[in-house]
Design a protein that fits this description.
The complex is a heterodimer of chains A (523) and B (321). Helices cover 36% and strands 14% of the residues of chain A. By secondary structure, chain A is of the alpha/beta class. In chain A, strand 4 and strand 5 form a beta hairpin. Chain A is globular. Chain B is mainly α and 321 residues long. Chain B has 15 helices and two strands. A two-stranded antiparallel sheet of chain B has the order 1-2. In chain B, a hairpin with a 5-residue loop joins strand 1 and strand 2. Chain B is flat and about 95 Å long. The interface between A and B is medium-sized, with 35 and 33 residues.
Chain lengths: 523, 321
Amino acid sequence: MKVVNPSDRAVVGQKGASLSRRVFLQVAGGAVLALPLLQACSSAPATPTAPAPTAVPHPTDVLPTPTSAPQATAAATTAAAAPTTAAAAPTGVATQAAAQSTLKPIANPQPVLPAQSLILTMWDNKPHMDTVAHILAELPKVQPNLKVTIQAFPDAERETKYKLLATSGNPPDLSIGCCGDVPTFAELGLVLNLDDLVKRDNFDKTAFFAGSLWEGLYDPKTKYIGQGSLLALPVNFVFDLCYYNKAMFQKANVDEPKYDWTWDDLVAIAQKLTFDNNGKTPTQAGFDKDNIVQFGLGGAQWNEFDLVIAAGGDYVTAENKVVIDSPETIKGIAFVQDLIQKYHVLPTPSANKNIPAFPTGKVVAISKDGSWNFTIWTDAIKDFEWDVVPVPIGPIGKRVGYGGSNQFWSWNGVKQKDAAWDVMKWLVDPMMDLTYWGTQGIPSVKEAALALDFPKIAEFTPKMAKISSEAGAYIQSSDPTIRSSEWKPVLAAELGLVWEGKETPEDACKKAQQKVEAIMTRK
Amino acid sequence: MAMRTPRKTATDIAESLPSAERGWGFSRLSHRRQEVVWAYFFLAPTILGLFLFILGPAIASLVLAFVSTNFITGFEWVGFANFAELFSDGTFWISVANTVEYAIGNVVPAVIIGLGIAIALNQQIRGVSFFRTLYFLPVVTPIVSSSLIWAWAYESHFGVFNYFLRLVGLHPIPWLTDTSWALPSIIVWSIWAGIGYPVILFLAGLQSVPRELVEAAKLDGANPWQSFRHITFPAISPATFFIVILLVIGAFQVFTQTYVMTDGGPGYSTYTIVMYLYVMGWNNFRFGYASAVALVLFVILAVITLLQFTLQKYWVHYEYD
């Protein structure tokens, strides 16, 4: 995937696109932050514009509650009319506010289809499953005769299951995925090309942020993503950030991380928050690295990619060029190795997977995790105070982090193509995007992300709103290239020795470079 | 005395009848032929199963080893290219080395410990049935379940094993998170999980050792070790041979526990041949290449098993010897 410089995204990934992913989140978050200003300046809400992050006022402590729908203009006249009443909050996610906005549909209404049963496959993440279930519960508003059954798989098995189903001759009707699923399946000719359906229904692709749509585009000739045909529709945009346990900071008498913290700050803070069983920190004499009872850093999103791209590195570009052995990538890898082996503030990935998760309030002080957890944890964590901060600024002097969009797609050979397409459209409908997907990321439909309801629905604090508003400027996807499911485990295995301190980053990256190149160039 | 005419059976009568009177179809066949048909009828499920689920896939896999295919975009005959790539792939050789290490580390202790436990259980002690059940319990426990539980017990910072090590003042061990420790840790689990099987087989062997031979040796002044060395072990050598064959084959097919506990890591430290095969087939959809791996594994196992059969004459004693 492309990455290197987010500002290149629109050029490389989306030729001619008016908005890149970068702009997408700038606009979305900017609108969120503009709310106080808008309300202060006008008694009647106006359609929010898209101020640049620098023009965004500093967040106040409390987000204002919109008093009326700012974009309640084109009230839906079709069967796809947006619900006017509050939808039930998905189980397992934070109690969400009812969407007050009424957003217009982005495709022509379709005739009601005859009774059909469809299968939707997805990962077994409960909040996501609940979200999908609630959106599907409202499907009868547009297609009363369609019945959709969710089939969920453990995330680790998702790709294999998908491939098996897709090649069985009886593929699921539609699926959700991320992180290279679309190009990986598209290279095998498994993904349904949506271009004809888009044209037939006058489906407005421009309703989505271009940066969000990017991963659903694929060119079979070049095998590049971000260009060519539309194969998938994005549902939201998520990214990594750092959640920290304020109680642990207070107990250790450590200042909370500043918004513009750097790698050096990260090390210094994490060292003060890491303790062995004798209460010593890594900087104190006699620290026992084999008996660490609290880590400064950790989290479910343990991946080095954030730090690799923060150092200006990458693994594989959108043009399928392997750059694992670049000096920048090695620098990022070396820093992660130092966090584990030199500073002793981060567990190895294999050790990390069994460490209690952040919501338990144990073991990990700063947890790098996904933005989708913000709303969930707002509701779930009652025992301690916590806050968020964006990923730290790396040696290139600007913030870069990992993020991307989840995608819906259908499969070649699907027997109920029209029904699958209609369900897919409903799953990314602007109102559904705002009402449900908004709790787990930035909506990918511009109008939904700009709706005044969004921050309230997402239960964003002003700080989180600010982080979200700026994330679009520095987020890069996790190399969603072809064969990513093949080369990523190879890379992970090579780096495993680095994390243990048994191989240098240079040697491991050189080996990985050769192996990944062999995979990418194989016929 | 007049000779009695042998009583005719129903079959004889039926066969002596003109064909028109014997009826049609199946009933026109002779009794023997009917029996043959019935035999094939009852064998059919097994034969069909054999061809459909064992021989068929095995033959298909043999052919696929010379093909490049993902079952989606077609088939291409590549000759020995899969094998050439396989033998030049360092990861494959790592998986072979890990598998051999696992096999040796698993089979040798399993045989020795299994025999020891079986001998203990063969004594006239109280609660033998309980202990037999206890040792066999892990064998009937689903591998995935017990692997997951052990993975928690092995956890470096909060696992129960390291908890006890700390209690006695020892340093914790990175059981599954260090390249040096991960495979031995899995071997230990495998011995625990599979020990019941050799124990049961050894027990069966021990109970078939002629008691009179043991008693005769005792009368001749043999001590327990001499009795075991010269009477018991030769008598159970066929069972030992059988156990070793099974354990070696099983060890070379190790997969589930490494998949569940470490997913082949850290690094490639627990990457085994079958995991390599699985990843190539089901993760990368390179079914031709994965079939080549399967064929190589088959050859490795065939050679080892043949070697064992060849060497058995030096240490296995059958009753008729």
